[in-house]
TrEMBL record:
<dbReference type="Pfam" id="PF00512">
    <property type="entry name" value="HisKA"/>
</dbReference>
<dbReference type="Pfam" id="PF00672">
    <property type="entry name" value="HAMP"/>
</dbReference>
<keyword id="KW-0808">Transferase</keyword>
<dbReference type="GO" id="GO:0000155">
    <property type="term" value="F:phosphorelay sensor kinase activity"/>
</dbReference>
<keyword id="KW-0597">Phosphoprotein</keyword>
<keyword id="KW-1133">Transmembrane helix</keyword>
<dbReference type="Pfam" id="PF02518">
    <property type="entry name" value="HATPase_c"/>
</dbReference>
<feature type="domain" description="HAMP">
    <location>
        <begin position="123"/>
        <end position="175"/>
    </location>
</feature>
<feature type="domain" description="Histidine kinase">
    <location>
        <begin position="190"/>
        <end position="411"/>
    </location>
</feature>
<feature type="transmembrane region" description="Helical">
    <location>
        <begin position="68"/>
        <end position="88"/>
    </location>
</feature>
<dbReference type="GO" id="GO:0005509">
    <property type="term" value="F:calcium ion binding"/>
</dbReference>
<keyword id="KW-0472">Membrane</keyword>
<protein>
    <recommendedName>
        <fullName>histidine kinase</fullName>
        <ecNumber>2.7.13.3</ecNumber>
    </recommendedName>
</protein>
<dbReference type="GO" id="GO:0005886">
    <property type="term" value="C:plasma membrane"/>
</dbReference>
<dbReference type="InterPro" id="IPR004358">
    <property type="entry name" value="Sig_transdc_His_kin-like_C"/>
</dbReference>
<keyword id="KW-0902">Two-component regulatory system</keyword>
<keyword id="KW-0812">Transmembrane</keyword>
Amino acid sequence: MLRTVGISLLFLAVALAVAILIGAKLLGLPSSDLPDVAFLLASAGGGVGLVALMVVRPAVLGRLGGVRVQLIGAGLIGSLLLLGMMLAGSRAMFISDHDFAFVLTMLLFASVLSVGFSLLCAAPIADRIEKVRRGAARLTEGELGSEIPVEGWDEIADLARDFNHMARSLEEAAEREREMEQARRDLIAAVSHDLRTPLASTRALIEALADGIADDSETEARYLNSATKELAHLSRLVDDLFELARIDAGLLELEMERASLHDLISDTLSGFRPQAEQLGVQLVGEVSGDVDPVLMNPPKLQRVLQNLISNALRHTPADGTVLLRAESRGEVVHVEVADTGEGIAPEDLPRVFERSFRAERSRTLAEKEYDPGAGLGLAIARGLIEAHGGRIDAVSHPGRGARFYFTLPRV
């Protein structure tokens, strides 16, 4: 309250100073009359003006009703202020009663016109605000795509544009939430299926050993070896879920260092050669001499390479080729894993990095027999590459293979 009074007094003081200055310099007001005029304006206009400024406050006018009533009230208060000033000025100048009545009639007519113009101006403004209110009501009822018409170029039009932008953002967020919920359900279903298989196999093998079915050391060793493989597969699934949960939660923090990408690729290829030979697939590596050093987290980047190569081997038939290539391209290092498999269908290509996505109709025999996974490898690869500050993508020509590539910032 005190702050409002202080601002009002300051405003009136500035208005009085401006009026006296203009009257003296431009209108030729005699300097001898300046004190009397200043006193008249300060007493009459100041008193009425202070009351007007206090009444015009939203906390006061807001009690009278909506926007229409508030605009009419503001126009009426302005007219009363002008009327009060003219009454005080007329009495000070000793205008006759006839002239005073004439001036008063003109002021009353002007006040009525002012109220009418205020009402005419308030009606469209109130209608536009009502449209915003109805749009907000539709949003609360769940109609997230509701938009309102944008009329004019004032603050209400800006409010309508912001409202429409908010409505579109809410609709997009809701759609993303629905997609994430569906992806979560698909992931749970896929993981539940893939966890059940190694668990059931391991349980069967252990029960067979416990029942004494393996009556010789060779059979027992074979059963134990199979159980170990199933447990290793189960461990990989759990690790993938844990890694993906950290990526989704934004808790993945990588410690970056200057390291040799050439050595990392060489080690990764060496680890996959026995598997590639078993599948009858040729594994080829090509690394240009100027790629090193690279700013990276070697264990995480190796996991990306492992996921991509493993995915390529699963989709490449015997006598096929998997190529791992790395080369320098300006400020980034370009790494790609290409295969000569069956490729990816065009409708599936945009979804290959989604969690739990597996194109069943294009799975090869090698994929069905070797480490089917839960469809998390490519999703984890994308999260790890993005955490490195790079980007990952894929291109494919059905029947001629697929190519996954990513970039890393150079040191």
